[in-house]
Write a structure and sequence with these properties.
CATH topology of the largest domain: Thrombin, subunit H
Structural class: mainly beta
Strand content: 25-35%
Number of helices: 7
Largest sheet: 6 strands, antiparallel, barrel
Number of domains: 2
Shape: globular
Strand order of the largest sheet: 9-10-11-14-13-12
Amino acid sequence: MSEHDLDELRRRWGPGRGSARPTSGADAAGGAPDATDAPGAAHVPDATDDDRPPDVHDAAARPDLGPPPATARPFPLPPPAAWNADDEGPGSPRGSIRPPDTTGTVDAPLPGPLGLRGRGIATGLVGALVGAVLGTAGTLAVVRSTPAFTGTRSVVQAPVVTNEDGTATANVVPAVAQAVTPSVVRIDVLTSQGTGDARVTREIGLGSGVIYRSDGYILTNNHVVEDANELRVRLANGDSLPAELIGTDPLNDLAVLRVDRTGLPAINLREEPAIVVGETAIAIGSPFGLDASVTAGVVSAINRDIQVPEEGGALVIPAVVQTDAAINPGNSGGALVDASGRLIGINTAILSATGGSQGVGFAIPVSQAVASAEELIEVGFVRHPFLGITGVDLTPEVADEFDLDVAGGAVVDSVQEGSAADRAGLEQNDIIVALNGEPIESMSDLVVSLRRFKPDDVVTLDLVRDGEELRVEVTLDERPR
């Protein structure tokens, strides 16, 4: 492919020139486009530059999801709840009213219409701040099993709900709610202005969290806590405790907090068997500030990829669990559990035309949550791999137009000097068609596949260069932090 052809290919994806989107920055680390990540590195405008450590699912099929939904709008969750409040005071657009106190209950009624409306297909990152759209067609990732859990995670754990014969009951929602609710907390997000006697602290949002370890570690979403000056955790017994932010994993939308309390009821984890479509899924959290709310449904799909709009671009979170259990703003960071009360995911996003639940919610799978939490607790950050290229999708239509013997792939637009890709000999205009033998149909496909690996892993890329096929080995770098 000549430079002229590549220019033509780029122009095809200018604004208003077709449905395909440009994709850049396959740095195997993910996140919104950000020229500050590393000198000379660019990111993926279509939200695909992200990789994931091993996951509990192993989906060989890559179904075509069809075209992605319309562009999402941001979904801010104001401080919880003046339900249809008038002008002044907390909860209106100008302030924040405290929500009804429903601590310790599972059936608090909504006081009235929520007054949250949107236009078009939009998704609310359900803790507060950002939206999410279903992933690009054909980008479902095949992922490895999670490594065995090591170390002492908890002293006190919530009970597992089973029949006397050890099997999960058919109608377990009340029992699961009773067993798991003490392991789910509310997180109040605060900000402060001024100093001394003039210092004013106000609530700017809320989310949910899961007690991960009995010695005070709590797992939640990054988007719940990222704008906080101060965090408080409200336990199921009503105690409100200041929380320390231990670390965040923005690429997987996860964060770990710690409160000064021991003997907490840590949630049980579903480490095996693998989650299957159709099994019971129960969501517990604080939607709209209604603490300890419980909704139930099923696992609708696994290994979905979602695109989360961020400032200046977007982020792909691959291999999430889809559920029809109602998830609403404020549920972010809360628990999605199975019929035995074991954690199968951390609720993170919804696909909605109204801003509220419409039966399509997403949770980060427990395997990823555990992998990120362990790194955050141990070292305070999560290491992600970095390839060091930018590129664009090669569609079958473009391949036909330029008479290429390749139906799909990722066209390298630039190679960062000194990066893993540069050391391996990748060049501009190379077409990446496979990674470790797995076909690569697009840049988004490449990025999602790379997320299975860690820095220093060696991967094999199959390329087409000037019509010739070749194979290179790449030792992945660590994404700059």
